[in-house]
Automatic annotation (TrEMBL), chains A, B:
It comes from Xanthomarina spongicola. This is Prephenate dehydrogenase. Pfam families: PDH_C, PDH_N. Gene3D superfamilies: 6-phosphogluconate dehydrogenase C-terminal like domain, NAD(P)-binding Rossmann-like Domain. InterPro entries: 6-PGluconate_DH-like_C_sf (IPR008927), NAD(P)-bd_dom_sf (IPR036291), PDH_C (IPR046825), PDH_N (IPR046826), Preph/Arog_dehydrog (IPR050812), Prephen_DH (IPR003099). NCBIfam families: PRK08507.1.
Length: 283, 283
């Protein structure tokens, strides 16, 4: 493995670049990005060795896609058309059904591996890339059996150097679960931020009154709408289901309050308290 | 100032104890708590110098109340009955209207100062007490004009050694604003935790699939129901108002998704993105 092409040199692509560089001293990392300023920044930050374009992909041993999921969906078939028979193409999107579907009958389906490394921060762009972002994080791999054996092995080498724990799921299960544990959190944070900003017209007041609890709960509302709009679009059905359940739970909580039923308010909270154990598992 | 009585030796009371100990070398800190195990723990952690009981309060120069807000509401008049004319009594509750109301006509109203130090963690009990918890945090002071001049001064000495920034508000404004920037965050986190736990019966799956984003958004769902139930009860009207607005915003987001109106989904998120600047102010 020598020539690695990273399409999308932001938080995820840039952080992967930092890891794969350690694979061997001969590795050359090429960056492809429709945002020329990001490419220049990635170069000056030494995330990539050279700028490249789509037409160069035939030279790639490995292509990593780290762009919004709608862009992955539309570009992936084209990328597979361009690469050689020995190239491994990996995506990193937060949805898997549409992406797997669009290449299910592609003649080079065996060159592709669908993955979702569950890691990130609320920041974006090349400057957000950090070393060790993926260490001890989970990487969900979908439809591994559709990828060529030799290329599966190559992928495992990469995930090993990234320090990731692998979990295998089908795309439908992935999208359903991830709607709960990731997509819903983002909507919850965005709408909480909106509710508070609408009310507190004077932002100075929010600075002064809000504590670390508020900061933690709305942190994800800093996330990029360019990345998240396509995720919600691709995972529409599952996300709407989670929103329905979340809204129902909030409404029930409100009704308990309206009825002065504070015993059930207490129970609702106590029953959720064992989230502690779950969070210990994450942290 | 020599004899300081802390009623409730948990996260807040214990952390205040660590700070006020630095006031001068002669300070003696007495702990009062209905939980005998907590008192013993506070003693062994050196948070307090001695255990004490309610009947001792006549000896106090300073009484700090750090117990659930319903307990403060019911005990405060009794405490004021017991203390001397030169004692300062401070509470630290997350609601202010009921607490100020219950003593508005008390003959020793001038011995009381209503405060809300906006600091904490999701943990509780004496072992959760930490040094420096209040540094650079906001302390909201209500009805300062009702406290005796001399005791106002004593309070300022204490807040200075805690490192807090002071903001003055009336109790009604306090309860209304804090419903948005604190109480709603807790409900949002509890119900998000509930929604995910209900769905993911297999907790191992939540460990594996959830990332730091989920952990951050539900962190407050670890909070104590004993502390939070009385807060929601006392601030019922304001909290229901915030919940109504939050549920409306979530419902609107869902309706945009159902209508495939992803332009507005994008706008909703982009308009909330400037929460970044607000959070920078907090952090």
């Amino acid at each position: 493995m020598k020539n690695i092409y990273i399409i999308g040199v932001g938080l995820i692509g840039g952080s992967i670049a930092k890891d794969v560089k350690k694979l061997n001293p001969d590795i050359l990392i090429y960056g492809v990005d429709k945002n020329e300023a990001h490419l220049d920044e990635a170069l000056s930050l030494n995330l990539i060795d050279e700028k490249a374009i789509f037409e160069d992909l035939y030279k790639a041993d490995l292509v990593i896609l780290s762009i919004p999921v709608d862009a992955t969906e539309s570009l992936l078939p084209e990328i597979l058309n361009k690469v050689s028979d020995n190239t491994l193409v990996i995506d990193s999107g937060s949805t898997k059904v549409n992406i797997c579907k669009v290449v299910e009958n592609h003649p080079k389906r065996r060159n592709f591996l669908a993955t979702h490394p569950i890691a990130g921060t609320e920041f974006s762009g090349p400057s957000a890339a950090i070393e060790g972002l993926f260490v001890n994080k989970t990487n969900i791999i979908c439809e591994i059996e559709k990828t060529a054996f030799k290329l599966q092995e190559r992928a495992l080498t990469i995930f090993k150097i990234m320090g990731m724990n692998l979990r295998y799921m089908n795309p439908e299960a992935h999208d359903k679960h991830i709607a709960y544990v990731s997509h819903l959190s983002h909507i919850s944070a965005f709408m909480l931020g909106k509710t508070v900003i609408e009310k507190e017209k004077n932002e100075r007041d929010i600075f002064d009154l809000a504590g670390s609890g508020f900061a933690s709960t709305v942190r994800l509302a800093k996330s990029s709408p360019h990345m998240w709009t396509p995720i919600f679009k691709q995972n529409k059905t599952n996300v709407i289901e989670t929103l329905d359940e979340y809204i129902n739970n909030l409404t029930k909580f409100k009704e308990f309050m309206e009825a002065d039923n504070f015993d059930d308010i207490f129970n609702e909270m106590e029953n959720t308290n064992h989230i502690k154990d779950i969070l210990n598992g994450i942290a």
